[in-house]
Design brief:
The complex is a heterodimer. Chain A has two domains: about 80 residues, Beta-grasp domain (Ubiquitin-like (UB roll), Roll); about 80 residues, DNA polymerase, domain 1 (Orthogonal Bundle), CATH 1.10.150. A five-stranded mixed sheet of chain A has the order 2-1-5-3-4, with helices on both faces. Chain A has five helices and five strands. By secondary structure, chain A is of the alpha+beta class. Helix content of chain A is about 40%, strand content about 15%. Chain B folds into three domains: about 200 residues, 2-Layer Sandwich (Aldehyde Oxidoreductase, domain 4), CATH 3.30.365.10; about 150 residues, Aldehyde Oxidoreductase, domain 4; about 325 residues, Aldehyde oxidase/xanthine dehydrogenase, molybdopterin binding domain (Aldehyde Oxidoreductase, domain 4, 2-Layer Sandwich). Chain B is about 30% helix and about 20% strand. Chain B has a seven-stranded mixed sheet with strand order 10-11-8-18-15-16-17. In chain B, a hairpin with a 5-residue loop joins strand 23 and strand 24. The relative contact order of chain B is 0.11. Classes of the chains: A alpha+beta, B alpha+beta. Chains A and B meet through helix 1, helix 2, helix 3, helix 4 and helix 5 of A and helix 7 and helix 18 of B. The complex binds FE2/S2 (inorganic) cluster (2 copies).
Chain lengths: ~160, ~725
Amino acid sequence: MARLNINGKIHNIDVEPDTPLLWAIREQIGLTGTKYGCGVAACGACTVHVDGVPTRSCSLPVSSFTEKQKIVTIEGLSKTVTHPIQQAWLELDVPQCGYCQSGQIMAAAALLVKHPEPTDAQINEEMSNICRCGTYNRIRAGVKLAAKNAKAKKSNTKAQRA
Amino acid sequence: MTIAQKLSRRGFLAGAAAATGGLSIGFHIPTAEAAVGDTPEINAWVVVKPNNTVVVRVARVEMGQGTLTGLAQLVAEELDADWSKVTTEYPTPGQNVARKRIWGDFQTAGSRGIRGSEDYVRKGGAAARIMLMQAAANQLKVPVAELTTSKSVITHKASGRSLRYGQVALAAAKLEAPKDVKIKDPKDWTIAGKPLPRLDTKMKLDGSQIYSIDYKMPGMLNAAIKETPVPGGKVKSFDAAKAEKMRGVKKVLVIDGNAVVVVADTWYRAKTALDAVNIIWDEGANASVSTASIKAMLTEGLDAKQAFVGNKKGDVETAIAGATKKVEAVYRFPYQHHMTMEPMNATAQWTPEKCMVWTSTQNAEAALATVVPASGLPIEKCDVIRMNLGGGFGRRSSSHDYVRQAVLVAKEMPGTPVKLIWSREQDVTHGTYHPTTMCKLTGALDDKGNVVGLHMRISGQSILAGLRPEALVEGRDPGTFQGLNAQGPEGQFGYDIPNLLVDHAMRNPPFRPGFWRGVNNNQNAIYLECFIDEMAHAAGQDPLEFRRKMMKNYPKHLAVLNTVAEKAGWGKPTAPGVFRGISQHMGYGSYVAAVAEVSVSDKGALKIHRIVAATDCGHVVNPQQVAAQIEGSFAYGLSALLYGEMTVKNGRMEQENFDTYEVMKMAEMPPVESYPVPSGGFWGGVGEPTIFVAAPAVLNAIFAATGKRLRDVPLKNLDLRKA
Ligand code: FES
Ligand code: FES
């Protein structure tokens, strides 16, 4: 048995404790946006947020989580595709096949929190997810666009408050 | 998938038996006879709903390359449709059989998605527009000639009346299709040729797009598989006592004599139980094959007497014998794996009455052709529903082994849907690998440094021999010579060399080859374009000028070469420590060239600073998608150059996952400046061609930087420090 807090909801799931979080999310909870790519923490397709930290869910068993940890999957990132990263991805048509993109978006969203104005070196460092379609350059542009948009929005709100 | 499922099954059984052959190519403008009854299907390609939504049927498959959007743009263009209300759907191969292949070829490979079907889909769109106009003319009681169309609205200017396509669709569907239709001149395009956003982006941003691996059905079970690690091996015995007792496990079975399968309630339980099955393999005849033994086999072919001739001009032997200077080199290209992000998988449901499969495939017709014998049912009782692909790159057209396996498992559990997912380890060790070849090049220069003779002896694996031996032409595999042919869209050799011989000694190791994005162009371009550089160096000439001299009769090849030279500033100074390399190649109907700028540190670390690429694909349907394909091609091609290599030991592939088969990531991806230079008048592919020039441009730049010729890629194995 495991109790997991996923996208703001507590789920009681009846699985073997060594089941990786990825497979609990996909097969027990039924959220299939988080993808299986390697199962060995090498590709990033399975990236989710655990208390805001990008985490490769294929390589951590459910037994290592408590319900206090907030797990967010791609389905929970925003209600209607409004996260700045999602918006930038839409604007630049980043995805090709799209299979890696849930993981890319989750990694990029966490990157923006850590580095609101990321440099190329920081993007290289934090975005180590694999994309076999080769969308890397658009991902880089997307991260920068999202950062720019988020900054503009922030200064707008500040200006309005002032 | 839901789209395809919703698709009307009308006419499915009628005529299915008559068309079991299903592989005749004859195909013309879709005719109205095919649509039966009250339906808004104007013709096979176009459905117009009462709410004015235009549904474009797409026979080719979307796997990330943007074909879905591009084909919809072409049809919508001819139809004068309101682009904001255009959607798409896939017909199934069963429906194609039932309707006598009205949708033509489903195969999506060889960069053919657009170029292989643009003519008939555009005509389909144009024909539908004529029928909609005729229906409007009948209703308004005016001559068709007085009507105009725009954004899915038909207008009669004189009377100020108009009708939406949706209002006349049912009437239009009953009309006879026009015999002959005119299609637009690309210069008049307003939808096609524009950098429109893709139709399928949004669902890739919130996890809602369903890929084959995500598909669910009520009562569905999951299966994991382990196939013989040595090609040709068999299951000798297995002990499943422990696995059978594990939670959720429903069945342990052997299929095809060479694979053990565990079926369980969830896939993770199936996989865990499979790991607990003790399998003893009968390894068969190939257990001692290794990378070294394969290399020895190929090396022998480099000087073998017998070889298939691909391109021949003049007398190369005499030219080489009389050369002022002889240049010689041997290159090798190793096995590569496709590494689609989504591992192979398929869901199958079998009953004595019907066998259905849901899967991601690049060729649903070939998938159906796999289902039929595996199911033991006649073709009219089988069908394949196409799901979204998490990458194809040729793997999902080379073999539908995963489909066959899913059907065999489902057949053991009649009525129960079973989803078979290959673990990444099963996937990497059971690929259809980019074939391995070697090439010995001998060049003859005269006293002025002109190339007077060139012999390219390729030795190595044939894809057709491994996958479709029946397609060999008197034992010869024409695909081996991609990009080196005397003429033709599949790759014309772009240099005038008076004495030329390109031949192939076929040597087939036991590992199954496959079509891998770019296919044989990948190594052929490395062989030729790096060797041309070697000869330029031997002649003491600038590699660009050296090429230009030989390209007067190949203006399209030359034009893209000139474009990259100009855009990259060839001949102008670079930043300190940065060096340039250049290459050009032609294949899949397109002309491509690239300049790479690289530096190599004292420790031998390579940095690719910039890629400048040009493509002439004739017509461009969506420029921003072409740019995306060019970038993607470089990522794929450079990944192979830097890391790609499957090695063999004891008859087994040694790499099993992304941790041992490394691929390129963000940090190494260079900026790519892409210049589409469409010259019009023909249709070339874009999903693959620029991959050809990625590796040779970088290798030539590395030579410029270090004085080292690297002829045995990938670079991860090599010392790049200055010679
Ligand atoms: S599936 Fe988790 S990192 Fe690849
Ligand atoms: S978009 Fe296809 S793998 Fe990244």
